[in-house]
Structures are given as C-alpha cells and as structure tokens.
Amino acid sequence: MNSGTTSWVGMTGLVIALAVGAGAYFYLRDVKESVEELAKDATTPPPPELNLAAPQLFPAETSLFLAVHGIDKSWDVFEAWQKRFEPTAIAYLINMSLQDPSALPPQVQGGLDVFEHSLEEMEARFGYRPTTRDFFQTYGKYTAVGVLPGETPEKKPRFLAVVRLPGKAASDLFETRLSEHSSVQLSDPPAAHGFPLFEEERGGMGKLYYGIGRSFLFLGPESGPVVEALGRLRKLLDGEKVSGTLADDPIFQRGVPDPWENVRFAFHVQRNAPFGDWMEQLRQLDDYIESGFVLAGDDPAIAFSSVETDEGWKVRSSFPFDRSKEWIDLVPAGSERVILTATLSRKELREAWGPAFERFEERAIWKELGALLRDDARLSKLLEEALPPGLVPPEVVSRLKHDVDLVAAVWDSMSESAMTSGSMSLGMANKSYERDGVLVPQGVVGIEVDPLSVYHLAACLEMGRAYGPGFLRFETFEGGMSWSVDMENVMAGMPPEAQAQMASIVDPALVLSSGRVFLVFGAELRDEIVQLLTGKGTSLRADELFTAAVDGAPEGWTFLDYQRPAALLRANLSSSRSLVDKSLSEMAGATDLSEGLDLVRGIFGCVDRFTTFLSQVKAVLTTTYPGRPAYTVTLMDPEIEKSLPAFAMSPSVPKVIDLLPDTTWFLVSMRIKTAEIVDDLEKAFLEGVGGQERWDAVRGVNGEPPDEVLGRAYDILLRGIEGEAGVAVAVPSGLPPEQMGLTLPDLIARAPEFVVFAEYADAEAAFSVWDSILGKLGESLNSTPFDERMAEFQEGLAPPPTGARLSRNSAEGLSHVALEIMVPQGFMGQYMTYTISCIRKGSHLFLTNGVSVLSHLIEKEGQTLPTLRARLTKTFGTNPLPAEVANLSVIRSDGIVDNLHLLLEPMIPILSMVSMQGYGMEEPPPDRVEAHMKGWTRAVELIEDLFRTGTTTAGWSVRTGDRIQWNWNTSGPSPGSDPDAKAGK
To answer: How far is 617 from 963, CA to CA, in rounded Å?
Structure first.
C-alpha cells in the first residue's frame, strides 16, 4: 500500500476515532460547567444555521455524497431494547460464556483488541472513555460525507465531512479542547472566513484539518475543501445566495425532493466514481456504481433519498419510478392462470388483522406462563424436581421474568410492525404459445421493489454481463430494460437432444420497469410484458373472459386467483405429449414394444377427451378479503355442456349431513352422475388403443373372460355413482379407557378418521363389490384362518400371527363389512389394528378407516346419535344451508384442535414423569405427582385454547345461467370481527 493510500486510510480511521472521542467529551459528567452549557443548548431553540441543508455546504461537482439523519433516534430504540435484554437469563448465560476471551475466535479477539486500543487513545486525548451512546447522540443527528474531485485530473480525490454539533456550547468546548491538545495547532492562516481552522499532523498518515463554523464541524485531509465549505457557510449565515452547490443540482433535487429535515438518508453519485483512483482495491466498486447507471439514461449522476411517511418508509430516486399501472394492466390477455395480491395500507392492515392479533394476545396461556416464570419459589421448585441439582443457577431463575417481558415486547413490536409496514403486492401469470405446433407454457413472477433495490439489481446484472462468459443479453425499451439468458451460448456443448428440449421450454429473462421486477420464463411472454409496459399490447383488463369472471366480485380483495382449467391443462400436457409422440413414432417398428405403445396411446386418448370435457368450464375466479368470506365463481359454456356427457346433477336436499357424525370437521360433497362420462372416457381410451380386441390382447386376456371382481368394480363402482359423492374427516370418539397409552396402536386409534362416500343408483350391488374386494384382501393376508393361528400362538406353539378378520352384518337398508388387519408388536401379544370398513346406508356407501364413524353409521334401531346437521343447526341457527344444494363444503377449524387433544392427552403421564426426573431413584411424593399431572393437564388445555378459533364455515354453490357462485356462511370470530369476541367458547 503506497503512502497516499496509507494517508487516506489513516485519515478515515482518525475521523471515526475523533468523532467517538468528541462525542464522549461533550457528555463529560465531571465537568459541571460543560454539562450545564450543553443542557442549556438542548432546551433553547436551535440557532438558524441548524436549518441549513448539508448539500448547501458541498460543491455541485461532488463525486459522491452520503448523508444520514436521525440515527440518534434509532440508537435510542436500540438502547431501549438493550436495557430490556440486559436483565434476562439469556443475557446472563451469554455473558458467562464470554468471560474467557481465549475461548473466542481469533478474529473476534483481534477486533476487541483494536476497539479497546481506540478507547484508550480517546481516554488519553479527552480524559473520558466514550460510549456508543455518546457518539450517536452527538453525530447521529446530522452527518454528511463527500468525496470531491481532485484539483487536477492527476490528483487523488479529496474528502470532506460535515457534522452538526449539538449547539454553540459544544462548538466552543470543541474549539477549546483542540487548542489545548499537544498534537493540534492553529493552521496558517489560523482562521478562514472568520471561523477557526486547526490542523493535526498524523505522522506518516498525513494531516487532518478541523474547521469549526458555529454549530458545524468540518473535517478533511486537505485544507482546501474545509476552507471552501466554511466560505459557503459564512455566505449562508450572512444571508447571501450561494450558487454552484450540490443543493442546486437538478439530479440531486429529483432524487431528494422532500424537505431536508424530513430526509433520513441521502445518496448522490456522479458517473466515473473515483474510488479506484483512491485505492486500487476499490476499482471494482467503481465498476459496480457505473453498472447501475444503466438506469440513468444520459444523466451524469444518480441520487436517492429515504423519508418516513404515513405509509412507512419510502425511497425516492432521480431516475423514473412510476407504479401507477395496476397489475391487471401488466398481465397479458389470454393468460391461463393469474395470481395477484393487493397492497394494503397501514389502516387497512390494522382493520383487517388487528383484532386477530389482539385475540391471540388475550389467550390465557400467556398470563399463566408469565405468572409461573415470575414466581421464583414455584419455578425453583419445578426446576429442582425436573433437572439434576445445580444445572440451573439461581440467578437464571430469578431473571426469567425479564425474559418473559422481553418476549412480550418483541411480540408487540413484531405485530405492530406487521400492522404498520404495509404489504408488498405481486403478480404471477402463465400463458402458453405455439412453437412448431406445440404449446409451450411460459410463466412470469413480478414483485414491487424500491428504487434502491432496482439500482442494486441492475448493477449486479450489468456486472455479471461485463465479467461473465457472455450468457446475458441486454435490451432497453421505453421506460425499462431487460436481461435475458443467451440460451444458444448456454447450451453450447450440450447433446442435441438436450438442446432441443431446453430451447423449446426455457428462455429466462429479468425485466425492470415501473417500480417492478419481472422474472420471466419464455421469450414470447417477455415480449408481451414489454409491450404492456410501454403502453401497447392487450392486457388482462381487456380480456373479455376475465372481465366476465371478475364482474360481480366485491371490491377490496387482497388476493385474486383466475384460471382457465382446460387451457391450463392442455398447455401443460402439450410439450410432454409432443415428446411422447416423437418417441412413439421412433419406436413404432419395435414389435416387442407395440403393446406398451398402444397403452400409452390409449391413455393419451383418455386425457384428450378429459381435456375436452373440462373445456365446458370457461374460467374460475376466486378473490379473498380480510375479515370477509371469499368470492368464488365458475363460468360455464352452455353450448359445450350440451355436446358433452352429463356429469353434474341439479341441486337436491343434502342427505350426507344427516348421516355423518357431529364430530365431522371437514366435508366436501358434490352431486354427480358418472355413467356417461366414464363410458365416454372408455370409448376414447379404446379408440386410442385400437379397439376392444386390441385392448384384450394388450391385457393378455386373449378372449378369456375378465376378472369378475374388477369388471364389477368398473361397471358398478365407477359407473354407478349417482348423487352425492365426496370426502369427510372426523374426530374419533368413544375411545375405550384402555387406549390411554402412547403406543403406536393407541395413536392410530386417536388419529383423524377419513371417510370417502358416494351415492349409487344400485347401492346394494356397489356394496356387494366392496364386500368381495375386502374379502379377497382378507384371504390374501390369511394363509389359514387367523383365529386358528392365534390359538396356536396362545398355546405357545407359534409366534404372533399377522392376518385379518372379516366381519359382516346386513339388515334392512343397512349393510356393513369390516376388515381388521392385525399386525403384531413384539412377541407379547400386543397388536396394531388397521380397520377398513364399507357401510351401505340407504343409497349411500361409506368407505372409512374410522371405528367411531363405523359405529355411528350402524347405530342400532331406536338409537339417535348426533349428526353433522344437528351441529350446523346449533352453530348457525335453524337454516344453516339452503333446502337444496349441488355442491357443499363444511370446515370446522376446531376439529383439528380436538384431534390434537386426543394425541396430547396420552402424553400427560409421560410428561409428568419427565418433569420429576430430579427425584432420581426416589419415589416422588404423591401430592407432587398429583400436582404435576394437574399442571400438564392445564398446559395441554392452554395449548389447545391457543389455537381454537370457534369458527365454522359452510359453503354451497348456486347456479344462475352460466355462472356458478359459491356462497359462504361463517360463524365465530373472523380476522376482522369484534376484538372482544371470545374464540373457542
């Protein structure tokens, strides 16, 4: 490192050290007069010069300018958190671990040594060891640093720092102290423009000049910039107009448009940054800064600033930054899938989610946990019983109350930040384009970004383009620019097959414009987005189908999902279909593969027909709202519906809610008829294979009759559905007392019970098929009757057998068959049982793994068990649903908590034993065992209460013309409802 570089580095370090030391000096606690003067300055109105803007003190040709305001406020916040942290148990444990410096990494030890040396130097210089607070309170309010060009092109850039001091008394104290310091002397001349000028010789590191102008401190390694800045200050104080300053620069004014006192951060940099001339190691920093100028057009500089507004922090920029266009105007028409999120203001966020945060904070678990951690005696007793002696120091126990306060404060801060920071919006879209007869799906993700992030992103990309191997192509357009990957260069050297595949699918690009960043996969989609950004092309707003779908959706949505199902499926299958078709044509001559190829063709024929069937749904739109039910609408095509097999059935009285138990917490049901659609798909499949005879040959049937059970399953189970069909989930109930352990069989018995159901035109025949299927499955698991092998085990003649038991029962209107699969656990006769049941009740068939659901559905004559309809009626009132529905959905969120209770309940005895490990081999006193059992029981209750919402949602579809709309009925507190509402009660 040459002497010039050494001088600059030394000067920079000295400026920082002097700043810390001077800040400490201004807060000397043992100099009564100084303290009084400073206190007086703090209570009197600021002098006029404190309203001066730092850019007025720097010349217009400043190469780089950086200013910060209000860091003292940030430090105050940090210090407040530090005070909360210091008394916590976590802080105590950290301090204990740091008592031995030798245990720290060498880099950390070196940094601490340098810091300690700097503090010692400041103490020797100013008579006081400074604190971080001293520095930020003095210099964090108003500090600006500038790099000025050299006096001639050959000279190194110059440096100037301006700091606003607390007041005149501080300036006088600083001037006095500099006069008394042995290494500092008055400059020659000793004053500039009526202000004192000092210089300090720093040995081999050059000089440092100090200029004190009223309440401003000027520092620099050369006298010229300091003297010139003092001259500008003098003119401003005398009321004269000063021209040629940075404040007059039009680019600076565009980047810093707000009043200077409102600016918290400002940055201005000229092209051809000078850092490489100062230090060769910083040459790449110059390149980085210059790369970002791709955003600036012909401007010779770029400027940024940050201000705090009513809607949070905002970043300004000198280059164009306009977010006036909505996402709908930036998504191309004809997109198959679109997802948009809206930006919420602070007020909207608070109204939407504030009550939910308040309800969460009101949960009893926080009060009771806080009371426990604040009760030193009780907590010490619990830790003494749970842990080995001496593991937790008493100091930690006494401090835990402060950890509670800290966690509570962090939560409050996080929730407040979530309410006040606003939300970022984004847009996602998928659209397919035809290439050589093949549809190629392409996608884009766009997010909002601030101007400074845009600058850094552009700088990184341009640096990558400059230093990289030529993989990026750069293009500009009106109001934006894009970087796209040169796929030909990337794929050079790849096999031809890989090149063809990647060229047809992957075309990544990144587009910057309108305050947004778009990551695009697909050249055609990128071109369309560029067109929309320049005000050309056709956007989603002009898409007639989207317009029809969004018409009727309530305003104020925060999330929008729009899709065209058939087009989306067709696009996603097209490219893979093309590859398969090509492979099939290449393998057509291979006779040993002909049957497999025919099967593939049959599958594709079926898929094609299903896509055609799906095309009757033109579009589906869903919008969600904070504190309100979602809006979902499906647009149908009546003409296509008429030409396709019937599938959906008209509304009717829902029967399944009268059959399922009231423990059901999830239900999705629709009214369908499968015969025609299954026949239609079968026809398409056989045409693809080559006819029934060819399909028989592929299967290896060769004229022999097909398997009877499989044939009946197809004809009856698949084709015979006519009415309600869907899935449900219920909480197990009526568990026997012996199932209180934590074994795997017990947990399986407490797991959610799943139900698949369907209504059949011939339910007896459908049940007969399931009876046959479960019977064959049971036979395959039993080499000999299971009861015989169990008897051999009980006589000690054989190990525990694996097998199955089948039970059947039939009555008028009700039949059921249950297959119990028995798997031994060890050699002591413990068994894990899996149950699969099929129940016919009237025209409905239910397939379930649930024992309690089975018991409910086969209740004895005269026994009335609570049903799902009874629960809905109790929750919503006498009319929870319309008399007739086609599609039905029910979600009771607390059902998940009920299942959680069943899984946690068996753990209470085990947790109680764990929390009494401190007794070792001794038997704990009975009263303490009882206390721990009660405590853990209460803990489980509090955990469950934490997640309870008391919300039940029932939805049903209503068709009007070609529109199918979902209506929702919600009970209990929603995110935006009354904060005083009590959940789970």
So the answer is: 10
